[in-house]
Specification:
It is a single chain. By secondary structure, the protein is an all-alpha fold. The protein has helices at 3-17, 21-35, 43-57, 64-76. It has a domain at 39-78. Helices cover 74% and strands 0% of the residues.
Amino acid sequence: MDISAQIKDSLISRIKNSDNLNFLKALQTIFDASEESLYELSAEQQKSIQTGREQIKKGHFHTNESVLSEMREWLSKK
């Protein structure tokens, strides 16, 4: 028996023998989350993400430090 089958058998046995409702609910939440897509993006959102990744590869971005510095300078003029 491979390791995957051993783990599955162990988990099944432990779940069957458990009377801990909080534990079982937590497992249910884990299973539900793993079966669902956490983020469903529209085609437009996916395209925007891809565009952003391409801009980063080309070096077309600002570091957090440079943005903060620019904001501090702007705020000091107010």
